[in-house]
């Protein structure tokens, strides 16, 4: 690695303005290149075209990536982003499912507002064009992934750009970092999903790219007063605004920026005969206060508009997760989780090179002082964030996702050195040095494994939770063609029998599928088992330890030997007995009492619950025998080769209860009409 050109290139780009603004930077490089040989010149238009090409290819790549993601990962992708976004776009009566976090203001409205505005704009345009409602629904379902693809592509671009600023244009390490992020299975699996962590990752690497890293230079460099250079204050403002938004989305992101700011402040402090850089400190703190206040004000106004009153979600988040200890309710992981599982899952086959990069980041001898300081700071941010988050009981790989671009940048020179061989003669241009591949078999196996992991996870691991909603939505469009509105359902139609029916009941672990962002139509009424946390209980109390949510009560086994679960829940909570007896239709009082609750058109669940349903509805002495339900499978789908949760194993199935007309089999009291016969023939 040639450190001197790289360090000089970093200073030039920062003097020119913010990183990622090639025009002014290339003017300076072009001016400097006048003293160099003609072969070493890089024209500004060539460099700008290279940036444009990289961005265009990344956008196309991530759009394809978004289209290929056909599987379910975690509920937060939908319930912490798209459900509140749907409510923003289509109103409180649109059928969006707001979880307890939104009811208690634990989340910032900034993230869902992005998708809510996109929903509103797309729906308005399609309404103006008078497009067919099913096509509008299809486009709205695909819209969030398409928008997130743009954020994912920007994250890839800024990973490459920061690596270019650190290692220099003549190094191959930036291109290795770009290929690592493009070929990362985790990036393919998660970057185009609408997690707040995905946007946080893009905001973080972009903010780091605009950060004035020259503050980490030696005392002599500090005397140059970087904020007096053209464009540097604007670059700092962009960095601080992006960082502030990332912190508001995910408060744990503050850990990363405390390290970066702390290291920068230590370099500005007086060392030896070098005086304290007072003017630089004043500008830094001024911009932190101004930019932080501006972003905070925007966030407060956004939350005021969304929730209807003044609130501060980061405080609520800290209160519920620390004082109420609710994070443990969602899982308790060992202290080494991020070391033994988190980082390996993020980096997959690049893990060995990542470990080498972390080890050598602050001690590499072939780097300039500025390069060494930058890489050492990035290394310290990664280690600090992993260490602090390891102290929290509830852990998820997504929580350290913002570190992935940093890990790629740290590992880039070592993966380059392992798989390439540079010529013995020094390079004569500022373009990447021509290389020859080596260890080709290892590289082929590494990339093949990455592609297999990415392909399986995005196409075959848990695809049923998405495809079942497509089935339900399209069947609703077939049965209720006059109820395909996206806003508040028409009050007259809402009272009719067609739109009043409970269309689907999900007897699955809670939040197994997306909700209104895929069901779309408000008139498509559905119900699912819930899993609200025990907000009413005190931390450490026996009541909290024995608390069971609705999904837990359904799946609770009644005997130590693993007897039939669910039947008691269906009879006592889902369809409880009413207080008055009913007749059998011939004037005689039927055995037992009539059961209350709505009977759905369809029941959705994993195939393991079929014996439970038949034990409740169809056996001779079944508690629900008199409800007129006759179960018939009308749809099922494979849900992957394995699942760690026994409740989600097997195929996902849709059973028709037979109590409504127009079903696929056309049975039941109302299913023997004309509409039912037509469907049977089809």
TrEMBL record:
<keyword id="KW-0812">Transmembrane</keyword>
<feature type="transmembrane region" description="Helical">
    <location>
        <begin position="138"/>
        <end position="159"/>
    </location>
</feature>
<feature type="transmembrane region" description="Helical">
    <location>
        <begin position="283"/>
        <end position="302"/>
    </location>
</feature>
<keyword id="KW-0472">Membrane</keyword>
<feature type="compositionally biased region" description="Polar residues">
    <location>
        <begin position="30"/>
        <end position="39"/>
    </location>
</feature>
<feature type="transmembrane region" description="Helical">
    <location>
        <begin position="233"/>
        <end position="249"/>
    </location>
</feature>
<feature type="transmembrane region" description="Helical">
    <location>
        <begin position="441"/>
        <end position="460"/>
    </location>
</feature>
<keyword id="KW-0808">Transferase</keyword>
<dbReference type="InterPro" id="IPR005599">
    <property type="entry name" value="GPI_mannosylTrfase"/>
</dbReference>
<keyword id="KW-0328">Glycosyltransferase</keyword>
<protein>
    <recommendedName>
        <fullName>Mannosyltransferase</fullName>
        <ecNumber>2.4.1.-</ecNumber>
    </recommendedName>
</protein>
<dbReference type="GO" id="GO:0006506">
    <property type="term" value="P:GPI anchor biosynthetic process"/>
</dbReference>
<comment type="pathway">
    <text>Glycolipid biosynthesis; glycosylphosphatidylinositol-anchor biosynthesis.</text>
</comment>
<keyword id="KW-0337">GPI-anchor biosynthesis</keyword>
<feature type="transmembrane region" description="Helical">
    <location>
        <begin position="343"/>
        <end position="362"/>
    </location>
</feature>
<feature type="transmembrane region" description="Helical">
    <location>
        <begin position="399"/>
        <end position="421"/>
    </location>
</feature>
<keyword id="KW-0256">Endoplasmic reticulum</keyword>
<keyword id="KW-1133">Transmembrane helix</keyword>
<dbReference type="GO" id="GO:0000026">
    <property type="term" value="F:alpha-1,2-mannosyltransferase activity"/>
</dbReference>
<dbReference type="GO" id="GO:0005789">
    <property type="term" value="C:endoplasmic reticulum membrane"/>
</dbReference>
<comment type="similarity">
    <text>Belongs to the glycosyltransferase 22 family. PIGB subfamily.</text>
</comment>
<dbReference type="Pfam" id="PF03901">
    <property type="entry name" value="Glyco_transf_22"/>
</dbReference>
<comment type="function">
    <text>Mannosyltransferase involved in glycosylphosphatidylinositol-anchor biosynthesis. Transfers the third mannose to Man2-GlcN-acyl-PI during GPI precursor assembly.</text>
</comment>
<feature type="transmembrane region" description="Helical">
    <location>
        <begin position="374"/>
        <end position="392"/>
    </location>
</feature>
<feature type="region of interest" description="Disordered">
    <location>
        <begin position="1"/>
        <end position="39"/>
    </location>
</feature>
